[in-house]
Amino acid sequence: MVNAANTELWMGSGVAGALKERGGDVIEREAMAQAPIKPGGSVMTQGGELFADYVIHVATMEVGEPATANSVRLGTMGALALAKDNDIDSIAFPALGTGVGGISISECACAMLPVISRWLRENELPGTVDILLFSEEDMDIFLKVWEELKLEGEL
Q1: Using one digit for the tens of pLDDT, what is the confidence trace for 61-118?
Q2: CATH match for 2-151 among 3.40.220.10, 3.60.15.10, 3.50.30.30, 3.10.580.10
């Protein structure tokens, strides 16, 4: 499971808060022990009480600053690389940077989808990449961006 984080890796609200609440404080403690990291950086912790064995924390923003498409792009790539390096077969991403980070679902999709598409063409692990979205509206936006990127030859 991927967590959209800040550079200090403390887990407040949104996806991070839900992961901490369900998986336990150990996830945040392990993450913060590796902080600070740069925007776009990523670190891995155990999954605590989650069904996921690991949580990959992607810093999409500095504390108190907005997320950027570049940090989402770099973080997506970093999370995929960590999964590969640790022989993780599947990975699940939220829409990085769209909560507290403040970027739009469309901007997030434009940043994440080309990275994931290219990764899956060039690497065996992780073999399964899921994107977990908050609503059908968000899914419709991701699918629209996917189709637009395909038409432009980006995927």
Answers
A1: 999 999 999 999 999 999 999 999 999 999 999 999 999 999 999 999 999 999 999 9
A2: 3.40.220.10
